[in-house]
């Protein structure tokens, strides 16, 4: 079917979350002429970058009734992307002239610097005036049949403000979900764990290394968090062992530069006497197992009668990782892809959603969107890619971004940004200890700053 353009219209749009995704969504929606309300359950903007000493009462974060601590950021965290690459395209992550006090000028700065940058962004574009802080969205459901009658879907949003003192029940034309995806932990299945006497926790609840003094700790995972946290803890712990299912079954390597840090294959099983047995045959007595095993997509407020589901970490069906065809364009998601450079992608997804909602950018028919999603799923299956990797992008992110850019009439991803992402990835693998402080891609930094002069 040929897509048809409707007249340009502005809509009343709810954005859930004021992290990096929600902030840029709000900006782009307002720029496009929509009226926007952002719901944010915390007291300030920044989402996951708001560091807190607090952790959840359940160290594995499995109890559904626990009080949620949103941030997973730990004290020593520095970004794993260089700031030039990481920032929004038209609001570079640089130190602006005259503002240097209390800033972290490093290329891979601390989490505080990212939060400051997001606050600056919110201030520059007067986003806060659209935000209702300390307001949790508790339910989002279709108010009338989506796309019925006038072609506009309506959504009922129920929210609570100031710890339930105010309850609201409102109708919006469209909802953009930006609630973050690092809150609901995944944990590894370990044979024998129910009778193992040690302490289990998820990296979501890791903040500082001192409590691990003189302990024997096993971390499970091969992500950036496992890399960083194992090294952080090794400064205090007696021994640190990293187990990972993608490592060869016989792997047992002492990490260069450390006397107490080893890489292993996966855990085979654990025993009542506190021991942990690895697939490589090694057995050690362990105090703590930390799961650095990532997170699940979670939309506890969303009621779509099964039209949008999360199945083995596949959110679907979603056209281009953004629109569920059954509700397009009135329901959309920002930030679903992973292994990406998030902020510039959020920016492009936001521009696309804003333009599609106003009718300036056409969407294919529902049938065509559904067909494309089915083709994607069959291709993944044929390639033997598990469902849980549906939204993993890596290098394909740039093709995806360029497609979004073409829809929105924006320029493609800058060559320097792609190359910087690639060279940083290589350095991370080859010099994990020093990649944040030693580099040789100075020419890319210069090219980035040439581009930034357009915006500074
Ligand atoms: P979030 O920042 O999580 O924001 C979501 C917001 O939604 C929160 O403010 C939350 O309070 C709010 N919210 C949720 N549910 C509700 C509700 N029901 N009602 C109202 N409000 C709600 N990215 C990089 O680019 N570089 C890095 O170096 C990097 N390092 C990372 C390290 C760690 C440990 C983690 C966890 C992530 C890292 N990331 C990094 C990825 C990071 O998550 C993204 O960069 C980005 O900040 C995500 O933004 P978001 O807006 O999607 O989610």
UniProtKB/TrEMBL annotation:
Its cofactor is FAD. Its EC number is 1.-.-.-. InterPro entries: FAD/NAD-bd_sf, Flavin_mOase, Flavin_mOase-like, FMO-like. Keywords: FAD, Flavoprotein, Monooxygenase, NADP, Oxidoreductase. GO terms for molecular function: monooxygenase activity. It comes from the Eukaryota. It is an enzyme of class 1 (oxidoreductase). Belongs to the FMO family. PANTHER family: DIMETHYLANILINE MONOOXYGENASE. This is Flavin-containing monooxygenase. It comes from Cardamine amara subsp. amara. The lineage of its organism: Eukaryota, Viridiplantae, Streptophyta, Embryophyta, Tracheophyta.
């Amino acid at each position: 079917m040929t897509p048809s353009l409707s007249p340009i219209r502005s809509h009343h749009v709810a954005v859930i979350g004021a992290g990096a995704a929600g902030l840029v969504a709000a900006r782009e929606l307002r720029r496009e002429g929509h009226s926007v309300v952002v719901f944010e359950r915390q007291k300030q903007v920044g989402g996951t970058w708001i560091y807190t000493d607090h952790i959840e009462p359940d160290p594995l974060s499995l109890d559904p009734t626990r009080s949620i601590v949103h941030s997973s950021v730990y004290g020593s965290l520095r970004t794993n992307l260089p700031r030039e690459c990481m920032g929004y395209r038209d609001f570079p992550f640089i130190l602006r002239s005259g503002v240097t006090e209390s800033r972290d000028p490093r290329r891979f700065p601390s989490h505080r610097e990212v939060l400051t940058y997001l606050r600056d962004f919110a201030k520059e574009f007067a986003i806060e005036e659209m935000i209702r802080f300390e307001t949790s969205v508790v339910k989002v459901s279709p108010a009338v049949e989506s796309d019925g009658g006038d072609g506009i879907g309506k959504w009922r949003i129920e929210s609570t403000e100031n710890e339930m003192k105010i309850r609201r029940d409102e109708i919006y034309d469209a909802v953009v979900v930006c609630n973050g995806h690092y809150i609901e932990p995944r944990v590894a299945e370990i044979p024998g764990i129910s009778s193992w006497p040690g302490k289990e926790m998820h990296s979501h609840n890791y903040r500082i290394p001192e409590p691990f003094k003189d302990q024997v700790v096993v971390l499970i995972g091969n992500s950036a968090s496992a890399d960083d946290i194992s090294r952080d803890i090794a400064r205090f712990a007696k021994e640190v062992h990293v187990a990972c299912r993608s490592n060869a079954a016989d792997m047992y390597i002492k990490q260069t530069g450390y006397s107490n840090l080893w890489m292993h294959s996966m855990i085979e099983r654990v025993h009542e006497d506190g021991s942990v047995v690895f697939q490589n045959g090694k057995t050690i007595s362990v105090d703590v197992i930390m799961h650095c095993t990532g997170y699940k997509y979670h939309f506890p407020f969303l009621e779509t009668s099964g039209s949008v589901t999360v199945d083995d970490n596949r959110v679907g069906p979603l056209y281009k990782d953004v629109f569920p065809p059954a509700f397009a364009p009135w329901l959309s998601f920002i930030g679903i892809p992973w292994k990406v450079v998030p902020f510039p992608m959020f920016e492009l997804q936001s521009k696309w959603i804003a333009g599609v909602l106003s009718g300036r950018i056409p969407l294919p028919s529902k049938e065509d969107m559904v067909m494309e999603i089915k083709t994607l799923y069959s291709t993944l299956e044929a390639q033997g890619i598990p469902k849980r990797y549906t939204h993993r992008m890596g290098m394909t992110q740039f093709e995806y971004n360029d497609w979004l850019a073409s829809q929105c009439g924006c320029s493609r991803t800058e060559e320097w940004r792609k190359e910087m992402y690639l060279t940083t990835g290589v350095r991370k693998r080859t010099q994990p200890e020093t990649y944040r402080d030693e580099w040789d891609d100075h020419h890319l930094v210069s090219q980035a700053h040439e581009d930034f002069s357009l915006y500074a």
